[in-house]
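Lecture notes, unit on protein representations.

Consider one protein chain, 417 amino acids long.
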Amino acid sequence: MENAIGLVMTGGGARGAYQAGVLKRIGELKRVRTHGNPFPIIGGASAGAINGAALATGCDDFAEATERLAEAWATLKPSDIFRCGPLSQAHNSITWIMDLSFGAILGGGNARSLLDASPLRHFLSKHLDCDRIQENIKHGNLYALAISATNYNSGKSYLFIQGKKGHPLWKRIRLVTIATKITVDHICASSAIPMVFQPVRLETPRGSAFFGDGCVRLQQPLSPVIRLGAEKVFAIGVRCGNKESQEQATDERNPSVAQIMGVIFNVMFLDHLATDIEHLDHLNQLLNDGHINQLGIEGHERIRALGTLVMSPSVNLSDLAQQHQRDMPTLIHYFVSSLGRNASSCADLMSYLLFTSRYTRDLIEIGYRDASERIEEIEEFLYSSREGDADDELASEAAETRKAGSGGKRKGSGGGR
């Protein structure tokens, strides 16, 4: 498998709709419709795990899969993700009050999350046929899907991999890789935002444990697809490349709980990808300048230069979320707003929890527009290294067509190291 491109999508809750917009535009490329899935290796965490699984289940028709994914995000309702009714919220609130007030006397630890994300499993089961992942691997449409989750019992990061027989497995400190059939439960676990959604129980070869959001411990989000053999990496982040990276005016007041949670989520969902990209660019530069060789440290592991292309929002998604806060169900909006002193202090947190169609449609549109503005760059990145092989393939197919009087549908090729 040569010249394989790995797709990396990190988390971001509702911000994952931006990734769907980017993918939808890529799915419209003529060469994508001709060659098939351009990403034989897919890695995802949190919302990125949902989007990655959607592609893995439908990559036999990549264009249609991206259209279905965008439509699912565009019609999303908060009730598809978490319970919004007064009884559910009252039960959660009473449980928290009892734990915080009388936990030491009556026994605590009963509060599991701020919101009940039980509906998410039903929503994913409705839209994802995970049995098709293995079918796509069998027919060569996909090499591997890797989904990250955090084991709350051991504190380790787990990487669940479903791929072609013989795919790499590796061990690192605080990281466990497992070859397994990926299910909706794995996806729910990877997307269980800490404190907000309840942990998910999973059975593993090491025993049963509770898992949460894959971004918590995934400090090198590019690593899974690289170790699975990607020669180039296409990453879709959810941090604004301009505004969110600028230092904002300092608010000298004590930060609210909403502000603190927003900062924590920004670190989890946004910073790890940006830092990993910086490290990879630095390593590429050292290789190109000849400061290190491809044998790597003490010759234990081959190091190679990797091409990267990163898509990120052109607008500040926190600002956009602030405009849509009133779209949330009244009770949920009241609950989240009570954690902050005003709409601005809740903006970062809300940008991850606004599973409303008006907000997600705006995100899809932004992602689609951003990809359209860079579509020539994206297409060159996806196919530049394959041009020679593609020409040979076309010539071979033309000869076969002349010989047999019929031709077959061409499929994209994938590679590994």
